[in-house]
TrEMBL record, chains A, B:
Domain ACT, residue spans: 360-438
Keywords attached to this entry: Amino-acid biosynthesis, Methionine biosynthesis, NADP, Oxidoreductase, Threonine biosynthesis
Pfam families referenced in this protein's UniProt entry, alphabetically: ACT (PF01842), Homoserine_dh (PF00742), NAD_binding_3 (PF03447)
Positions of NADPH binding: 105
Pathway(s) this gene product operates in, as recorded in its UniProt entry: Amino-acid biosynthesis; L-methionine biosynthesis via de novo pathway; L-homoserine from L-aspartate: step 3/3; Amino-acid biosynthesis; L-threonine biosynthesis; L-threonine from L-aspartate: step 3/5
UniProt entry tagged with the keyword NADP: yes
Active site: 205
Membrane-crossing segments per the record: none
Protein name: Homoserine dehydrogenase
Amino acid sequence: MNEVRVGLLGLGTIGTGVARILIEQQELISRRLGKNVRLVAAADRDLKTERGLDLSGVRLTDDASDIVTADDIDLVVELIGGYEPARTFVATALENGKHAVTANKALIAKHGEELFPLAASKGVAIGFEAAVGGGIPCLKALREGCAANAVESVYGILNGTCNFILTKMENEGADYADVLKEAQELGYAEADPTFDVEGIDTAHKLSILAAMAYGSKIKFDEVFTEGISKITAADIESASELGYRIKLLGIAKPHGDGSVVDKVEMRVHPTLVPVNSQIAQVSDSYNAVQVSGDFVEHTMYFGRGAGERPTASAVVADIMDIARVSPDGVEYLAPPMAYVAEERRDLQTLSVADIECEYYLRLMVKDKPGVIASVTAILADHRISLEALNQKERHASHAVAVVMLTHETTEGNLQAAISRIVGLEAVEEDVLILRKESTVA
Amino acid sequence: MNEVRVGLLGLGTIGTGVARILIEQQELISRRLGKNVRLVAAADRDLKTERGLDLSGVRLTDDASDIVTADDIDLVVELIGGYEPARTFVATALENGKHAVTANKALIAKHGEELFPLAASKGVAIGFEAAVGGGIPCLKALREGCAANAVESVYGILNGTCNFILTKMENEGADYADVLKEAQELGYAEADPTFDVEGIDTAHKLSILAAMAYGSKIKFDEVFTEGISKITAADIESASELGYRIKLLGIAKPHGDGSVVDKVEMRVHPTLVPVNSQIAQVSDSYNAVQVSGDFVEHTMYFGRGAGERPTASAVVADIMDIARVSPDGVEYLAPPMAYVAEERRDLQTLSVADIECEYYLRLMVKDKPGVIASVTAILADHRISLEALNQKERHASHAVAVVMLTHETTEGNLQAAISRIVGLEAVEEDVLILRKESTVA
């Protein structure tokens, strides 16, 4: 029986999970594939830690370079994370005629456009299902399952840490800083949580989804990105009173003339979604990706967005897809970015000022007569109409919070209005701007 | 550019949708595929009806036999439905070396086991994503996306008509017969709704999912099947008071010694699911499939389970997957039933008596002293313990409803207890038995 030999870079959490599947599910994999997949070698700087796995028969090394050039390896799995040395190792593996599978969203978001043609030129495949949505086979669903559709929108809860924090803030009425601290103690958030809570991780993933949906190049640097760190328990409560839940969403939409897409909208920010929508139910560290198409309507893919075992499940699904066509049938795989290479275009990103949204605004104002009148006059001046306005009770000498939901307007117009509003003597500088989406499933 | 020529059997709702995609999205499909897919011919008994489509350039015929033998067709799409003549047409197409794609769950559930080897022997492919879950790419997710997992359970809301009726009964407190009538008037239910409401359609789909999950043969005849026609508005309310929603689920689970599966449990019945679970939120005519695996944990796939455009989306996804490997790379496709043919086993179906469940029981009893004591004594005698017991108010001279939730027991043991309970003079014959699942996502 034909055999595919795997080399693993990184025996951390996910690497251990991948090794575990390849060892424990060997028979199941062969029954599904008609070939064996064998873990031949693994590299990690730390070879001492007990991983609860019998790795006898696996060549262990602390030098990843060995694996990416080894003659007895057909497929390299990169689970080191980050940009470098991951990029160099994956590129070297591809140059040496080895397939590559990675869970590294940063790598694909930043260097995918150099790795895809390299893989194609060497006749090998590159898989990255685990880079978006953890264990959820959402890239396959978008790339293949919804392939007959012009994609109308992609919405994703793509970061488990943020969703865990927002869920806990909602359930316990707790403030951001307290929940973050608890999440760090539980190991759900990093000591430096910036990457997660400021939306960068979500932006990496969204840039991949958007490029795949619309046949464009991956443009991570152009994603409009805001995190969750300014949200208070009071905002979550205000949103709830209005019938919404706050989720950190990655959102991609097409713009153009009829069916021809010429610009792609990409944004990551805390978003109000209707409380009874499917995506609003996605709680704790779960992830979900909604893909809506002109024929399929709304679809949603739900599951664990991180963790040893779920992420390893997606990595091994890629290994199996590639093993099935290895060594001679790589041309028969669906193209990694859903469009054949020569049909992928360099679409512009919609400029931030042109994004159209409904907005949730939270202003802190001095409780004086006429303030609301002045604020609403400015909004009216910018032709921004209001769907709701709630003035909260005043707490002692503090300023009072005014929460507004607007109808649709452009980001540019809204920002112009806001800059005038914060110029009012009775309004404090710090305005919280959230965005609302109504077309979620 | 290489081209794949498609012949369509049936220009009803879904057939029209498929023709519409192949015509309107021709350029998109080529950009994703690197080949053209062209609709060459279509057969329907009715060629007069205006379908809102420009079918010029498509050969129209009222004789399907022409298409399944035509030299200028590479792939036949069967959208006639039912067992015959669909089976004969698909078999003839395969025998003539044409790929086949179908949305026909009855056909695959009943005749798949004869069609799969026929396709393999002719070196052609057979696709049936649209047969389960309509537009949702759930078979691909199970077959490929979760391929690294031993599947621990499959749960599906697989029939839009039943889910529409149950949602409406819950939202309006209406009774089954009234909602069914309304659904029929709206065209959401057939004049003879038996196939849908008695769970047969769900059983067709479940038998395919179960066989794919566990590497067994499709055994539609062995699915334990109960429909929704006995559920009352009062049952939905009782379930709600206990924290549950009632959904018609198809359920498949493996049984065996360790990781070796030797029996498959398959059942379709109205099921109590926790009201805050993801699957409980799936409302109206939406479908969802939950796949839980030993590595991926819970995943769920959500979308439209029926309708012209969503179902056509799944049909064309299959066409594209097959077109990509046609004519010479069929061997590189994932096997249609997720395991290579020689590894698919003839696993036994778990006998109904051995199914273990938690139960919801609704008894109508005469309001006399000692009745509850007698009923609970019989349950205790069978070692069935209760999680909850609610006696409803009596309506005039009618018997009173008693609702019980039991802890886990076997179907055989429960039925033995029930047959003794209905033997009590104060208990009416008609006991409603629903089942409860707690491990949904």
